[in-house]
Write a structure and sequence with these properties.
- The protein has a domain at about 25-220: 2-Layer Sandwich (Arylamine N-acetyltransferase fold).
- It contains 7 helices and 15 strands.
- It has helices at about 45-50, 65-75, 80-85, 95-105, 110-125, 225-230, 280-285, and strands at about 25-30, 35-40, 80, 125-135, 145-150, 155-160, 170, 180, 185-190, 195-200, 205-210, 245, 255, 260-265, 270-275.
- The strands form 3 sheets. An 8-stranded antiparallel β-sheet has the order 7-6-5-4-11-10-9-8, with helices on one face. It has a 5-stranded antiparallel β-sheet with strand order 3-12-13-14-15. The chain has a two-stranded antiparallel sheet with strand order 1-2.
- By secondary structure, the protein is an alpha+beta fold.
Length: about 300
């Protein structure tokens, strides 16, 4: 059985040391069938979370499981801006993110998706660090405005379920060669300001996506970024609604923009116009969730960064 859904969805404090990433250490739960290490004091209901993302594979702490969980999460929990677009406050609090993503069947943005996913991974026994990144899609930027994750296995890996159309499998952080990200080619580039994650374009040129330092942060360290991004109404988060997720574990993808539905399958893209009156129904059909408000999306002039 596939560990992800098919096509349309059916109804103790940590010390920060520059250059070294500390992790929360899990505890052994003797009653767990395979005896691997899990957190006994986790706020996550692991079984419920795994059902939410339709993951039925193994839960051992290895690379194959990590990739399966990442793909399943990106299939079931959309990267979307609907709360921010409808002026509904969001926070970085883990309890709020778990309630929204797991209990509410919603998606969210990086602080919610990666925040919740990190807690799930830790509950399963993975060693996770929360990293702050500066998004470079619009050009140079030194302000932390993205949460991404480092997971330690035999070596450290970058994992991200909250950056939209990007890599869908863990990337080896110590590898500077071009890597297969499952949905394109990616590469890490060193700089004095941190490590840049870049996608390799059709001309074999690296296009910077975001830059980060490998220093473990708390979710509360992202409060200022969350407040700024949702309250600045000139930013794309507030301009047009969008939602995007993988299909069947990827790399196929479905993206709902303010005026059209994009379906990427086997390298081809099909676009279908979506009228305002059809938007909420299309959202429900392809993402199995309702818009936070009943009114249709507002027409604006800027486009979402999702392509």
């Amino acid at each position: 059985m596939s560990p992800w859904t098919q096509g349309r969805l059916r109804a103790h404090p940590q010390t920060r040391v520059p250059g070294r990433v500390p992790y929360r250490q899990p505890f052994v739960r003797p009653d767990y069938p395979d005896g691997h290490m899990v957190e006994t004091n986790s706020p996550v209901d692991v079984d419920h979370y795994l059902r939410r993302i339709a993951y039925t594979g193994p839960t051992t702490t290895d690379l194959a499981t990590l990739e399966g969980l990442q793909r399943a999460h990106m299939t079931a929990a959309a990267f979307e801006n609907l709360d921010v677009f409808h002026h509904k406050p969001v926070t970085t609090e883990l309890s709020r993110s778990l309630a929204k993503v797991v209990e509410g069947g919603r998606g969210g943005w990086c602080f919610e998706l990666n925040g919740a996913f990190a807690a799930l991974l830790e509950a399963l026994g993975f060693r996770v660090a929360r990293l702050g990144a500066a998004v470079l899609l619009a050009g140079p930027n030194k302000t932390v405005d993205h949460l991404t994750l480092e997971v330690q296995l035999d070596q450290p890996y970058l994992v991200d379920v909250g950056f939209g159309d990007s890599f869908i499998r863990p990337l080896a952080l110590n590898d500077r060669s071009i890597q297969d990200g499952g949905a394109g080619r990616f590469q890490f580039i060193d700089s004095p300001e941190g490590l840049t994650m870049a996608v390799i374009d059709d001309d074999d040129l690296p296009v910077p996506q975001y830059r980060f330092r490998r220093v473990n942060l708390e979710l509360s360290d992202f409060d200022a970024a969350s407040e700024r991004l949702q309250n600045d109404r000139t930013l794309h988060w507030s301009q047009k609604p969008f939602a995007t997720r993988l299909l069947d574990g990827g790399p196929d993808r479905v993206t709902l923009l303010s005026d059209r539905l994009k379906i990427q399958r086997s390298g081809s893209v099909e676009e279908t116009p979506v009228a305002p009156a059809e938007w909420n129904a299309t959202l429900a059909e392809w993402f199995h969730m309702d818009s936070p408000e009943s009114e249709n999306p507002r027409p604006t002039t800027k486009e979402s960064p999702i392509k």
